[in-house]
Design a protein that fits this description.
With 839 residues, the protein is mainly β. The longest helix has 23 residues, at 6-28.
Length: 839
């Protein structure tokens, strides 16, 4: 019996033959595959159009930006890749392409599209504006799609921040003599993106984040933080999720220290044009592609696109980019991306954040670097009692907790807990930085750079000299003054820092000096003890942000024909500072000061004392301060305030006590202030400070309230620009200080000033003060009489141009009252300069 019937056997042979022939054809076919990505953010570009120029055939990339083409032979044609908002990319199948194929039947490509083409594509002339209708639907559904609609939620958050030097020329860098010890670093230069960049820094943070809607509470528990070479808790906290939250459903989106109007703001139609350009299905869900561009140039707006779910009108992915004329400094390109995914197959929740920025400090391609921050969200929990239980541990509204050992987790922990594996560059960064930190020459270079920037230089490892800008000074009393500072650093002791200086004036042939010490008993919450002994000139009042008189730069800025007031001070001070988690702090101070006026002030001889030394006081004071949720950047001993979202309140009571250290006076003083730095988008920022005080006794002028004057042309926000130092004396006073930075304001309407990114502001400073008859009489001598306002208003108004060449500011200030101005006053108008680095 035959095993197979003839017809079946023939059919089988035909199938086998066809399979062999088809396999042969496949083995000889040509395959082009790859992915399309944003050249700046490296994000995949979904549904990009791919069309052959001659054949007029093509397709779209898929939802992940990938594509595959099969050919019998490589076509003699040009493939054009296009996507709204980007420049077209043309891939020619010519000799260069065949060389790239190198005889292979398969070519893999990563095609990077550059930005462009928004402005001409978005013009809407239809009777029905579908883009505007889509925006309205998104806004209407915001309260149902924003994650902050939930009563509470939590998630595990993974933050990764990478820093790359851009446009690195390997050969030129290797030839530089100073960089030869670090030649191994240049082996990490990456050129895969068509341009060279050098990855130099990487940090990672893994934390659990908790949020509650009412009452609002936030908590972050940092489980691991990896910052090679940076052993600083405040840096770890700033890299956590508490400081990185961006809500695209909010009306305003933070970009560095500014706030930009969100394209899905409640009044976004006042700022943007919208257009629906496509509809696609992803995982059986219909998505609309919406693009948006600014209506007007120079405003704080984005350009970009988003994909919108057709049923819920929730954002599935949002891409925001800064336009070229955005008024922000040093930023060449910036991308903000957020992706959302379904949680429990029912609600959209944030899945991934990405922030990419190109910073150029000097020129277009000089001194530039790329920052890349990626944040992923896992283990999302919504409306659960476990979240509430965790938030109940909070002592204040917001808390960031660093778990013990979080900054020293082993590599094995990170391998098991990272949300995504490190790529080749990221792995190389850790090896490179670890090698650098072991090189003495690297620490030597860092020390020199720090010396130039901050003025301080570590010497003999445990000690520090500087600041260098106070080493040389000159004035009419001291002549040439040379000063030398010496202090300890963190290698000397982790809790105590010592500092002192000696200065010699070749004109008066006098030595001056100071010694001080700070003991950090506890860092968080802060508890410190500070002591100081000083014998030197007091050049008048010193205020925050002022160029001190004992400074080489002050020589170039001093106003002409204003006599310098010289007064010597012998001061002993002891201060205890205690802070609580709430932001409330107490400062207890004991302060002995002995003044000796030398020039252009009433002499010590007109203030005789029967009970002690003249102009000798001992003050015991208590200062109460409340700065809720104030944030700081800390080093080992000192810290810099990053501000608070709430007003900061200060109150101080001082008691002068006679008989201690030969002091002569009994008196009481009180003072208080409330200040705030408020962002008021889209109208810029507003700073205000309301202050006042009173002195209860008849006293010599150094112990009364001296209005803060300014005798140099460098603008000081906290002093009166057209008032001389020691000009107005008060024992009762109230004042207000306002500064409104508008942004580009009127300058955005002029192409030239818009391109230069000029910014506009206005200021107002007012003071009301009076002096009792007894104090007026006591402080009057034959050669010097202090002025007092006696209830009149001192008022200065100003405006000017900020952000000149990105760092300079010009203030034009008018003294409005009092009129007529008292004898010896500065002119009623002045121009002042200052500089700062600001985004």
């Amino acid at each position: 019996m035959h095993l197979f019937k003839a017809p079946f056997f023939k059919t089988l042979l035909m199938l086998v033959s066809f399979s062999i022939h088809f396999s042969s054809l496949l083995s000889q076919s040509k395959t082009l595959k790859g992915a399309i990505r944003d050249a700046h953010s490296d994000e995949p570009i979904p549904f990009a159009s791919m069309q052959f120029k001659n054949a007029k055939t093509g397709r779209l990339s898929d939802s992940s930006g990938s594509f595959v083409f099969h050919f019998d032979e490589w076509p003699d044609d040009t493939l054009i890749i296009s996507y709204v908002g980007f420049q077209d990319y043309k891939l020619a199948f010519d000799s260069s392409f065949f060389a790239r194929a190198n005889g292979s039947n398969t070519v893999k490509l990563v095609i990077k599209l550059d930005r462009g083409k928004y402005q001409n594509e978005i013009v809407v002339r239809k009777k029905v504006d579908h883009g505007l209708l889509m925006w309205k639907r998104i806004v209407k559904r915001k309260k149902f799609n924003d994650r902050y609609r939930f009563n509470n939620f939590s998630y595990e958050l993974y933050n990764k921040l990478e820093l790359d030097l851009d446009h690195v020329n390997k050969e030129k860098m290797k030839d530089k003599k100073l960089l030869k010890p670090f030649s191994f670093v240049f082996d990490n230069i990456d050129t895969t993106e068509g341009k060279s960049f050098l990855p130099v820094y990487l940090t990672e943070t893994l934390s659990d984040y908790y949020f509650q809607k009412s009452p609002v509470r936030r908590r972050e528990v940092i489980k691991a933080s990896k910052t090679i070479g940076v052993d600083n808790p405040s840096v770890s906290q700033l890299l956590g999720g508490m400081e990185q939250n961006v809500d695209f459903y909010s009306n305003f989106i933070p970009v560095f220290d500014k706030k930009f109007v969100s394209p899905i703001s409640d009044n976004g139609d006042d700022y943007y044009r919208y257009k629906v350009v496509d509809t696609q299905y992803v995982n059986s869900r219909k998505l609309f592609h919406l693009i948006f561009t600014p209506k007007r140039k120079g405003q704080s707006t984005f350009e970009g696109d988003c994909w919108v779910h057709d049923t819920t009108f929730a954002i599935q992915k949002m891409n925001l980019r800064l336009s070229a004329d955005a008024n922000i400094n040093f930023v060449k390109q910036l991308s903000l991306i957020q992706e959302f995914s379904f949680v429990n197959d029912s609600v959209w929740f944030l899945d991934k954040d990405k922030f990419v920025v190109d910073i150029t400090l000097i020129g277009k391609n000089k001194g530039s670097f790329i920052g890349r921050k990626t944040t992923t969200y896992r283990n999302v929990v919504i409306n659960d009692s476990a979240v509430t239980n965790e938030l109940n541990k909070n002592k204040i509204q917001e808390e960031t907790i660093l778990e013990p050992g979080s900054r020293s987790q082993p590599d094995s922990f990170w391998v098991n807990h990272r949300h995504e594996e490190l790529n080749k560059n990221e792995k190389a960064i850790y090896v490179m930085v670890d090698t650098l930190l072991k090189m003495p020459v690297f620490h030597k270079y860092v020390n020199y750079i720090n010396f130039i920037a901050t003025g301080y230089l570590d010497v003999y490892k445990k000690y520090q000299i500087g600041p260098w800008f106070s080493w040389v000074y000159s004035n009419v009393l001291e002549g040439l003054r040379l000063r030398f500072d010496l202090g300890t650093n963190r290698y000397f002791n982790k809790k105590i820092i010592l500092h002192g200086y000696a200065a010699y004036g070749f004109g008066d042939q006098q030595w001056h000096w100071e010694g001080d010490a700070l003991y950090v008993i506890k860092k968080a919450p802060r508890l410190t003890l500070f002591g100081m002994y000083k014998q030197d000139l007091d050049f008048g009042q010193q205020y925050y942000d002022e160029i001190s008189s004992d400074n080489i730069f002050a020589l170039a800025f001093r106003k002409a024909n204003i006599p310098i007031k010289f007064i010597h001070i012998d001061q002993k001070k002891l201060e205890l500072f205690k802070e609580w988690h709430s932001g409330f702090s107490v400062t207890l101070t004991g302060d002995n000061k002995v003044y000796n006026p030398i020039s252009n002030l009433p002499p010590k001889s007109i203030y005789p004392s029967a009970t002690g030394e003249a102009l000798n006081t001992f003050e015991a004071s208590i200062k109460l301060r409340f700065a809720y949720l104030e944030k700081f950047f800390e080093n080992n001993f000192y810290r810099t305030s990053l501000g608070s979202d709430y007003p900061i309140v200060d109150f101080k009571y001082t008691r002068g006590i006679a008989g201690i250290l030969n002091s002569s006076y009994n008196y009481d003083k009180i003072s208080a202030s409330i200040s705030d730095y408020k962002k008021i988008p889209p109208f810029g920022t507003l700073y205000y400070n309301v202050f006042g005080g009173k002195t209860f006794q008849t006293l010599a002028f150094p112990f009364l309230d001296i209005a803060p004057g300014n005798e140099i042309y460098y603008y000081n926000q906290y002093a009166f620009s057209l008032m001389n130092k020691y000009q107005y004396l008060s024992d009762r006073y109230v004042g207000v200080n306002l500064e409104h930075n508008i942004g580009n304001g009127l300058f955005r309407f002029i192409p030239f000033t818009r391109k230069l990114k000029f910014r506009q502001f206005w200021t107002a400073k007012a003071l009301w003060g009076s002096l009792s008859d007894a104090n007026q009489l006591y402080n009057t001598s034959g050669n010097y009489t202090f002025q007092t306002l006696n209830g009149k208003t001192y008022l200065e108004l100003g405006t000017g141009v900020d952000n000149i060449f990105k760092i300079f500011r010009l203030d034009f200030v008018w003294r409005v009252s009092p009129k007529p101005a008292p004898a010896g006053s500065a002119p009623g108008f002045g121009i002042f300069g200052s500089f700062r680095i600001d985004f």
